[in-house]
Amino acid sequence: MGVIGSSIKRREDPALITGRGRYTDDLSLPGMLHAVIVRSPHAHARIVSIDAAAARAAEGVVAVYDGRDLVPGGEIKGVPTGWLLPDLKVPVHPLLAVDRVRYVGDGVAVVVAESRYAARDAADLVEVEYEPLPAVVDPAKATADGAPRIHDEAPENVAFDWQLGDREKTDAAFAAATKVARLKLRNNRLIPHAVEPRACLADYDPTSGELTLRMTSQNPHVHRLLMHLASMGLPEHKMRIIAPEVGGGFGSKIHHYPDEAITAWCAINLKRPVKWTATRSEANLTDAHGRDHATTAELALDDGGRILGLRVETYAAMGAYLSTFAASVPTYLYGTLLSGQYDIPAIHVHVYGVFTNTTPVDAYRGAGRPEATFVVERLMDAAAEVCGLDPAAIRRRNFVPPEKFPYPTQVALEYDSGNYEPALDKALELAGYDALREAQKAARDDPKKPLIGIGLSSYIEACGLAPSQVVGALGAQAGLWESAKIRVQPSGSVTVYTGSSAHGQGHHTTFAQIVADKLGIDPEQVEVVHGDTEKVQFGMGTYGSRSAAVGGSAIATATDKVVAKARKIAAHLLEAAEEDVVFDPAADGGPAFHVRGVPDKRQGWGDVVLQAYLAHNYPDDLEPGLEETSFYNPSNFVYPFGTHVAVVEIDRETGEVRLARYVAVDDCGNQINPMIVAGQVHGGIAQGVGQALWEQAVYDDSGQLVTGTLLDYAVPRAHNLPSFETDHTVTPCPHNPLGVKGIGEAGTIASPAAVVNAVVDALKPYGVNHLDMPITPEKVWRAIHLKGAL
Amino acid sequence: MFPARFDYHRATTVDDALRLLGEHPGAKLLAGGHSLIPMMKLRLAMPEVLIDVGRVSELKGIEREEGKIYVGALTTHAELAASEVLAAHCPILAEAASKIADPAVRNKGTIGGNVAHADPASDLPAVLVATGAVIHLKGRRQRQVKAADFFTGLLATDLGEDEILTRIEIPDLHGRSGHAGSAYLKYEHPASGYAICGAAAVVKKNADGTCAAASLALNGVSATPFDAARVCRELIGAPLDDAVIRQAVNDHLHVGDPLSDVYASGLYRAELAKVYGRRALRLARDRAR
Ligand SMILES: Cc1cc2nc3c(=O)[nH]c(=O)nc-3n(C[C@H](O)[C@H](O)[C@H](O)COP(=O)(O)OP(=O)(O)OC[C@H]3O[C@@H](n4cnc5c(N)ncnc54)[C@H](O)[C@@H]3O)c2cc1C
Predict the structure, then answer these.
(1) How many structural domains does chain B have?
(2) How close does chain A come to B1, measured CA to CA in Å?
(3) How far apart are alpha carbons A509 and B125 in whole angstroms?
(4) Residue A14: Cβ within 10 Å count
(5) Which of A504, B49, B81, B230 is most buried, most CB within 10 Å of its CB?
(6) Could you report the per-residue pLDDT of A551-584, keeping only the tens digit for each?
(7) Given an 8 Å threshold on Cβ–Cβ distance, is B192 in contact with A712?
(8) Nearest to A544 by CA among A665, A416, A638, A407
(9) Of B1, B263, B272, which has the smallest distance from its Cβ to A654's Cβ?
(10) pTM value?
């Protein structure tokens, strides 16, 4: 086995686990000031007045600014949204609220002081007089008559009204159906909870006019571009964005928030470095949330359980403003996934993006695809029930068969490859499905035993964001290619510059493996550089399970270019024709070029590299140096898939749910580092189980976030989870050079449906056909003991 | 998470702490800091003065004397959980302490702070009620209050502003007349780890297996530990089979004014109290010898 495919330990970990990681908040600069943002305690209110006199007079305070100091217009255009849909209503999102606040946490003023304590104390002294307005927090209610209007630009609170698929064909399918499964689903709102809260440190040099912004970013170049285009207006070559060590993101650090622009603005205005770091509570209030859908979904079937059509209507909360990629998540990352693993002849989906007086909603691990998978996989279980089929059988019956690939769905995608049944079989075998069903039966009849439930989720994911042509046609304002530069140093070691900025994924390890494997060198000889707009060529960043598939492909392609160039040099050194020279990375005695058929006539890799720089007798058409760049633009998404099986045990008396087992069979194509793949799968499953059983951002009717701290908002913990049983099948991606598919989000996409299906399965004897997430023990208890009184 | 400004004093003895309390009205004692500091960071508490009793050695330790166990207020949850004296003579206190949060919290948090803070979702208060513990307080004078009387409301106790909780006295559960059985069962909130419902039961059996004495108290379901004395009166003299326990609990365990929040309603908590109460009694019975 080569370096690709081996589970070498993560090279980034020693620093991180010994406390030597340097995160944004660890950094300080001479003369640095601290910013604290004063935030609205009201979900919806008119700002009557702001009196900052007392705050300004407080010890250590340098400045206090409010929205009128930072009004959009001129250079500052507010915070932009980056994905347009036809007729999208894009209300102005000012850096600080000017006359109205629209969610609890909306910024109204910023206090800058010599210390963080002084800034925090003075923030309490900023007197803001509010005139509260009625608020609406539920996307299903925001469009009702009489609902408070959040933006004048969107009178009905509708940001967009979007459809995909063929309505007539779908209606006809329902007319022809003999069986219909129907569900009303709430996809609960989640708070991302990256371990490191968002932070930024802005440093402005008034003589050069250069702004250096260190910040928690998953995509520094994209941040720089958005800040150039809208919030700051500074030219890009005068802005440097550095993402130091970043402690997780789950999507929440993709987006451009007002906070970094406010901080940068303060640094420019005060000509001193300014740092802002969110507190945990502040992060919970202001990090873009995830999910929050209200959906009605119906599946039309024939008597044999074959799917004829799917109809979906969704109200998706946007929150109070359109965050960076908000509009893409419940549309092109959701509607397009509704065919699941199934051959569905007619699909129609209608999505309303709705403003609510809540924290903005945007991409969160899985982004749209967990929501779609939840709809499809819950419906499959409901359909199994309606048709009297086993949940495994109805899935098997409707899978897209292997011979149908490439398979064009009814919702705009073309699945390039897939082989769904072997993954299902493997998962069922691992789980011991038949024995589980037996045990379930036995437990049902014995009141002393907990109820057992078994849930399947056969998911598909479109990731590796994103084929630029495809997404461009779908409304993205940017292609989502990725860049890589490979610099071979004269001594043969390699520096890789990647536009895919890591924040926990293991880039330093896997990306080094790709290069080391291709060149036949030790991964220790390869350094990976990312996360700095001045060091690295433009790149798109890390999200949407794109790093291996797109970033890794760019690295592979650039490495190939390096080999091609080195081959020219080797040909020169070997005095052979270029086409006669071959590179053997696994040659005895180390990687080497040799003349085809004459292994003895060789030049070692190191010699060739050195000669690339000592060049003194080159032919005219050969340039010195060994450094190549690739901008890799994928031709399609990649489509990982798999089947997960959850087994739950339910305490009949209390409704407590114990996740007893969790089996996952995933297909992410070729695996670069199986240990890192497993890590991604484990983390993803945990997060999805969290959504199913524990997590929920709860707003009360007045718009207060009731579960705003970790005392109330339950993230999954190791002791609540069983040891996961994982395995895989391998169906390589046919269109990228590594044959890899993304695996960062798969667990989060598959697991909510698996767990909910398991709970509903356990509760069948009580006539339960659905419970909304998170499935708290009380909901289960009510379903068992107070039938119908949910 | 930045607390408001405060002054800090470190007390060396109980009397020193009392003197400082007298000098700084409104001051707060600081023990393990694992209830007080989080509140200060959220600015839900803004004491101007903290008096740290964390190094007052006379407040530490667990001792047994003449059929009584004395636990110093500063004893940490980890020390309770690992105590051999408690394992032998009051295992329920160790059991409950071991179910508090995680090692970091157990290494810092103290029994005195836990009881003085009187969070209804804490684990120790019901245990003290069920075991018939007595709280020792020292102010201008010393006084002793039964645990059952100490907790007066949500985050409220009988502790005076100028008093210190010095130690807790617990009767030895394993006297000459046989081993009482005891059990603490907990249903924890998935986020905070605090008790949505915690049931502490102590059961003594007669030679014929009937109930000689029983007590049951619950955390998390009401503003103060819920003392299910009526259930226990019902059990005395009765054979302790499952059906009897179920009947007694169903008939007599009624939480009148249950706590309620977005996670668990009052209706549900009242039901949990019954289920957990029943289970704790059964387990205590099984452990009695
Ligand atoms: C993450 C987390 C999870 C937790 N989970 C649980 C749980 O599951 N179950 C549980 O029971 N607890 C839990 N706790 C609380 C923990 O047990 C605390 O340690 C305890 O409640 C308070 O003890 P302390 O020593 O930390 O007190 P401190 O925080 O120092 O003080 C708390 C209060 O008691 C007063 N006080 C302290 N000592 C004395 C004294 N000797 N005399 C008079 N007044 C005094 C203080 O003035 C203050 O008002 C948790 C805490 C945290 C941070």
Answers:
(1) 3
(2) 6
(3) 51
(4) 10
(5) A504
(6) 999 999 999 999 999 999 999 999 999 999 999 9
(7) yes
(8) A638
(9) B272
(10) 0.97
